[in-house]
Amino acid sequence: MGTGRKSFGAFLFHHSFSWGWKLISISFGDLNPFPLRQIRNRRAYHLEKVRLELTELEAIREDFLRERDTSPDKGELVSDEEEDT
Fold it and tell me: What's the domain of life for this entry (predicted)?
């Protein structure tokens, strides 16, 4: 009797386990509102956008550093009150 229960328990475990995988497959595969291809395309689009913004910011930074190095006051900070006097 003991081996019959064990084999039946193994059958139920395997059966429920396979149903779990089927459920996961349906929920994340068939019914998935965000297919992996669409996610990759959006990531690539936004990555390109961020890289473009980064290059623009780097150009602005280089211009700022160049202007700061060539200015006569050499980047000294002056408050608004000192400018007025």
Answer: Eukaryota
CB contact at 8 A, 78 and 71: no
Helices marked H in the chain: 2-25, 36-70, 80-84
Per-residue pLDDT tens over the stretch 42-66: 999 999 999 999 999 999 999 999 9
In angstroms, how far is CA 35 from the centroid of its own chain?
16
User: When comparing pLDDT for 18 and 16, which is higher?
Assistant: 18
Is the pLDDT at 3 greater than 70? The verdict is no
Q: How many residues does the chain have?
A: 85
Say which DSSP state 57 is in: H
Inter-residue contact 75 to 68 (CB < 8 Å): yes
Domain boundaries, the chain: 35-70
